[in-house]
Amino acid sequence: xxxxxxxxxxxxxxxxxxxxxxxxxxxxxxxxxxxxxxxxxxxxxxxxxxxxxxxxxxxxxxxxxxxxxxxxxxxxxxxxxxxxxxxxxxxxxxxxxxxxxxxxxxxxxxxxxxxxxxxxxxxxxxxxxxxxxxxxxxxxxxxxxxxxxxxxxxxxxxxxxxxxxxxxxxxxxxxxxxxxxxxxxxxxxxxxxxxxxxxxxxxxxxxxxxxxxxxxxxxxxxxxxxxxxxxxxxxxxxxxxxxxxxxxxxxxxxxxxxxxxxxxxxxxxxxxxxxxxxxxxxxxxxxxxxxxxxxxxxxxxxxxxxxxxxxxxxxxxxxxxxxxxxxxxxxxxxxxxxxxxxxxxxxxxxxxxxxxxxxxxxxxxxxxxxxxxxxxxxxxxxxxxxxxxxxxxxxxxxxxxxxxxxxxxxxxxxxxxxxxxxxxxxxxxxxxxxxxxxxxxxxxxxxxxxxxxxxxxxxxxxxxxxxxxxxxxxxxxxxxxxxxxxxxxxxxxxxxxxxxxxxxxxxxxxxxxxxxxxxxxxxxxxxxxxxxxxxxxxxxxxxxxxxxxxxxxxxxxxxxxxxxxxxxxxxxxxxxxxxxxxxxxxxxxxxxxxxxxxxxxxxxxxxxxxxxxxxxxxxxxxxxxxxxxxxxxxxxxxxxxxxxxxxxxxxxxxxxxxxxxxxxxxxxxxxxxxxxxxxxxxxxxxxxxxxxxxxxxxxxxxxxxxxxxxxxxxxxxxxxxxxxxxxxxxxxxxxxxxxxxxxxxxx
Length: 747
Ligand code: BGC
Fold this sequence. Notes:
With 747 residues, the chain is an alpha/beta fold.
């Protein structure tokens, strides 16, 4: 195992010495306390449970202000007792400083607490959902987005975000696909590292940095049937080749914490999985931070049937390498007896305490426990610079899926534009999943974005048309009338925020409710129909794909949704995003992903090949796909060598020309396939990309360097090898098109 510089920083002699001294002074209760994360509990609030209240908050039925005002118990006596290592869900400079003061000044050893929160895509300045951001392939911008989230969250007293989610998912039924970087391992790894670097900055003691948490370790995105929390069964080779690399990238980038996942893998819950938490994470990845469970996942090992009771579950989890129990009190209730009677060896307990204290030292919390103030919070949150960055990120996240006859971009001085659909003038659904600290009032809707973009002579005819879901009495009359009078129709349709994210698996992936019927009615008017999609996952939209003039995939873009969509619709920004997940034609094709292993009978004209008898085998839109207002041509693929050794580098160059009339950005993608190997290999895999800006007529020779040592796979003994033989290489605009070359790897 080779540690990166960032990983080596975790072990410092001075800190380890201080930790030894502290551990020597701690009682058993205080030690276990460090392994506990607890959230303020709410009482008497509408007679609802905390989970129900959080659901109301997520649904927007309760505003963050109302939520904050609820009577709550901050466990101050236990903080005083020194038995709470971390709190989740404490928001605000004043509150966090007040609680930290109790820990520092009133507890026996004065150990600071860590305040954690799900800061998933922005804090108050809500950025696009992570899936959308990934479509930009703009790594610097993604890093900046995480940095801004860290600045705002740290100003509000947060030390630690439960992000990035680096789960690969090939299943759009799984609602949490919205929280990750899509289906590709290489891209997912690059983005995982960028997000960790953005949150953590160069130094954890920087008061604008927060701890990252790579989650959910591991393979949570492979839940059978796309159903959240479901079981995962896969070969260890697939686990290591497809699902673990983004976690390794996060660890190598210095991620301070990891979160274990809810699922079991091949029969062992991740939370109690020694192979994952110790052998792989610490042994192979060189991780020196700490691992937190997912909420209640320790106790759920009993429900899994992997432990007889909570005692056994907490013991197994701790022995497997889990350090902190999130929220539900299992460790604090079920470890003390076992630690007292020696069932749990003291060294194991001490080691977990050490890992948590180490991070607190690295953050500088012992010297500087109050990292923010009310003034700093007010100055930082939602400042103009952050809002501008959210707009930049949002427009780069948009993917243009169709643009018949170059109907887009629209002229700003059209006479009449119909803007219809249930998401056109909607603020809260632009925030997307996990925007706990976001507020609808900060959102610029798409309707407002369009209104501020067009000329003063342009008339905007708005009609909602129908609801997002349900709506059996939908009456499209007003929307159709608006469309009939207009030059073009912009229909904004899609999903609600809570239709993706946690516990939001769907078995149908079409537009919910009456929205497709609305689109059909609008289409009948024969006016050019531009569809703007707002969604947290790929949707199955063959009718839209066939009949709309243009499709703008806008995902859930956060508070600057309106300006970003308007920038694209009216050509102030030339769309450059590409899909990071395959769009299925029909839900029956799922799981469908571009880098599938080669079958012995690839789909062909004859019946006995790998396909369907009742629909296409091809997806609606492939991975890597996205259009621009200009066109690009690819020529002259050159390899630095066609004979290489496994320890050498290979440089791929290709001439990319902007063949259209406007400047545009292109994401040049390089895919590799190992033609013959001792294990069946994927048809192709992304191994490099570059985003470039070209003026009309400009040609650039794009060079992408590959390490041949990274083109291998895990053999049957789980050793990573690069087998000699023929490899194919593809350079192009998406996973389906491109120039082809080949090279040989020799021994
Ligand atoms: C989710 C995690 C999240 C945690 C804390 C869990 O239900 O699975 O992703 O970080 O809650 O809010």
